[in-house]
Amino acid sequence: MSGSTDTVCQALEVAGISNLFAVRGGGHNLWGAGSIHDGVLIDMSAMNTTTYDPSTGIASIQAGSRWGDAYEVLESHGVMVGGGRESDVSVAGLTIGGGISWYSPRLGLVCDQVKNFEVVLASGEITNANQTENADLWLALKGGASNFGVVTRLDMYTIPVDPIWGGYLVSDKSTTAAHLRAFTNFVANNGKHPDSSYVVLWNYVKSAGDTVIARFLVNTKGVENPPELEESLAIPTLVQVTKKTTLTQLTREFSQPHGSFNFWYTATVKNDPNLLQKAVDLHGDMVQKLQSASSTGEFSTICFFQAVPTVLSEHGRARGGNSTGIDRLRDDNAVLFVAGANTTDPELSGLAGELTACFCADFKTYAESVGGLLPWIHGNHADGSQNPYCEKYNSNNTEIGMENLEKLRTAAKKYDPSGVFQTRVPGGHKLY
Fold this sequence. Notes:
- By secondary structure, the chain is α+β, with helices and mostly antiparallel strands.
- The chain contains 13 helices and 19 strands.
- The strands form 5 sheets. The chain has an 8-stranded antiparallel beta sheet, with helices on both faces. A 5-stranded antiparallel beta sheet has the order 3-4-8-6-7.
- Helix 2 runs antiparallel to helix 8 (247-254).
């Protein structure tokens, strides 16, 4: 596809003939949301231009752009946006799913950095959605994903660019208790240190033969070894690669290899080291089951935690709100949990996906039983079987998020009255 919005309009006309279609930005989604069989694939990758207007401070980024390429352009202008953490993720897909960036504690979710969306509706109409024009569509697109139209351009707020400090550290799994203490202490105080981010994960790689603990530490003001990360930095390491660099370079170094069957499931829980220890234990159980089933196929697994401070919802409200549901996390800083697995072995992929789903389900059941499960599913990390718009709790069969879901459904009926993006685009999280 050529890099013009008019071409997207034409593609939607062609897709109408075939009945089923998919829209692919970067193809980063793990469960085939950007794929289609017996239909039309609208590939947005040619729409990859980034421009900056110094008179308004707004960056205009076409929807098929990758974050690394957009960052490189913006850094040349001395500005930056609060976008993705890996360079090869597409701008639109991450943003309309909500999006978490290294700048999120300071600025909010990625979707909250969008001043205006250019969108092609199912009718072929090109429209803009912002706080004064089609404001309900603007709000819906900030977390409501691909349920309303094809986003073709995002006009985003910028900030002055700073050097960034960060990198990764790897430790032996025997340091688990120290990592859980350091991480939960950081999470408890993340709102006081909005320039720093901390991700920690337990990672088993079959070819390496054991589980290690990797942590990604970042300070977006370029402060080296900041005090709020001292406890983590003091844990003995096997490998440490941290430095002052640019966001462009850092996101390229954090990008993950392609070519595997990948599975992700997610939940949000209270910031409790004992609760997180349960997830680490369940991850170990999953590893043992995959080890028993795989004689030759390569695979890896993760148990992943990152901070979700309450300031994220505060930033969102200050920017007019969003549709991610994160506003439900107002009381205490929380933890985003991800259960993950990947394999290059097609014969192992079914079991890997099944065990990852069970890992997450078992952890959620336990977390709910001890009062630690929180009502938020982050769409960018959610499997297709999960519902980021409305979460059901097993203990009392309560559905959380129905009010938000009904607002999204109202917007979808208004801007896509024929239900094209609900019924003819098989991939993605749907509203019905």
